[in-house]
Amino acid sequence: MLSRLGPCFPCRRRRAEEHSSERGDHLLSGTTMRNETDGVKQNCLLSVFSFCCTPEAPTSNPAATDGHPPPTEQEEPPNESLAYEQTLEKKLFCEAGRLLIAREERLFGEIQEPEAPTGHQEEVTELADCRRVLLDLVQQTLRLSLDPGEAGAAAALASAVKAVEQEEAQDRLWDQRGRKPPVWRPCAWKEVHDSTLRRLVEERMDNPSTPPSAVQAGQSSVQVDVCAMGRRMKEDLLQVASVVRSCYPPETNICHLYAEAYHRTFSARLRKIADFGLEDKDCTFLLRWVNEYYPLVLQKPQMAGVMDVAALGKLLPEELLKPLEDQYLNRRQEELTTFGGRIIEDAKDKWNKGEEPTREDGCFVSPVSYDIIQLINEMVTSAEKVVGDLQKAQTITRQLKGIMHRFKIFQSDVIMQNKASSRPVVKAHLGCIEQFRDFLNTKRHLFTEEVGKDCLLVLTDMKLSAQAYLLKPVHQVLKPEYRKLGTSGWLNKNLFNRLLVGIEEELQGLQGSIGSCHQELLGKLHQEVTVEYVRRLLKGAKLKNEEQQAKACNTVRDNAESLYKLFLKMGSEDVWLKDILTKIAEVLRLQDLPAIQIQVASLGADHPDLSEKQLSALLKLKTNLSKADRRTVTDVLSVTREEWSTAGGRGAARAFFSEVRVK
């Protein structure tokens, strides 16, 4: 390092040897370099010391600085100053720079034009050489700033940084003087500093070390290279945050300068990689570095608050990211379709072999919903990290509607073929349908609105189809008892109990679905039995007098209560079905026309799907009502329906009478 000072001041060296031999001997006795070559270096440094620290140098001369204060602190007397060579040996670059600036002031502060005195030219040349040597040493120190561990490295770096600041201050001073500065001014050491760090970053990113233990089996060359660069960047930025930052004044924001340099360099390297066609695995890996790993590195606690992460932006521009994202998302869509279809095909194969679904707590269960839900959840969640955008990740689920349709087709085949294992499979499907619905409703952020809506419609069709398939045999068994409803025998004999017994026996065969699905299935049966009851009643025997109407009222009430208690015991709690029968019974009992109108208005308000045709059929059972009276009551229903429609519908009215077919 010191040998570079050899060319400086050849004439001054001779002058020092002739006029300062005692002083030179004293300096030589304090050095550690004893061989012949080092002796030449020592003589050179001796001349530098006599040149830069000669007693004739003024400490502060306002006239010599054009009225401006000197750029640095007051120089100490020569006998208290460190010798120039000692400042370099000890890497006190700031002190060395102050000596050179002091000599610059002596040479140029006393004259109006730097080139005027030709006698100074030799000294000017020698000073320029020394400045180049110091700059070279400062740059060497900067290039070592990211290498951890060397004793005194932080102090040397801090001194180098101060030397740069001194030179910047001297540049500004000369700019204020309004006259031509020395040839090296402005020296722009700050620009040199910044460009040196940028080159340092580029060199380190071009040749990142990769420990053998860091290379994972199966990694491609792209992944190994990106990992190595990422590891180098992380380690260096941590070094900057923990060590280098303390060597700079806060206003320099050195952490962000390094972060920008690494961001720019890393981005340039990734652009070159992205320009070539990447395999799916490398494409995914590159996107994860851009959107997941890289932000995590910058969010480490040691770097939080010292780097403006938001200002850095993304590692790759949108025009390069979009093709990579499209490649990744299209691949994930294909995987969802493939794996989702495979899950359904596995279930179908088991059914074709006659295998029943497994049981848990006595209920049939299928893995179809669980497996597909896990697949979707994992794919969209990971895709959000890979592409860094939830809306983009949602596009993967565009294929879900197709998967739901395949599931629906599978269930339709199960129902159509009606094998021995079909009913257990359909009961298991009810659980799958419920799980899918819950997933779509609670995890809406994973889907686009259109996908969620379409899938829910498919699932609703599947549920209704499954319930109809399971309940159809029940109604076939109960059909003989349905025929007796509304007849004179039903009114005069206790025939309804036989229907209750039949229902209770058939309910045993409906078990096997998970709890909530079984309860919903019972509610569906309760509603369908009630619908059939009302349908049979409306076309039943005429009630000719008040006594028969009162008896019919009591019978309907009793039947409603018995039916409710039976289904309540089995798990259904649909009390609203009992209320419908109770209100119909009241219409049969009442004789006063205004009272009938009030009851009909209440029934119509609760069930807007009650039609005039159905109400007319009910009123015709009361043969003592005239046609005009029936018209009057029917008009009340029309008014009630209009009021309900004008109010926008009070609450979610349950459909019931729309299922009651009347000829």
How is the topology of this model organized?
Blueprint: H1 10-19, H2 21-29, H3 36-52, H4 84-89, H5 93-108, H6 121-143, H7 153-177, H8 189-206, H9 221-242, H10 254-275, H11 280-298, H12 309-312, H13 318-352, E1 358-360, E2 363-365, H14 368-387, H15 390-394, H16 400-417, H17 422-442, H18 449-482, H19 488-492, H20 496-509, H21 515-538, H22 546-570, H23 575-589, H24 593-606, H25 612-620, H26 627-646
Antiparallel strand pairs: 1-2
Can you describe what's shown?
By secondary structure, the protein is mainly alpha-helical. Helices cover 68% and strands 1% of the residues. It contains 26 helices and 2 strands. It has a two-stranded antiparallel sheet. A hairpin with a 2-residue loop joins strand 1 and strand 2. Helix 17 packs antiparallel against helix 18 (449-482) and helix 22 packs antiparallel against helix 23 (575-589). Residues 1-81 have low confidence and may be disordered.
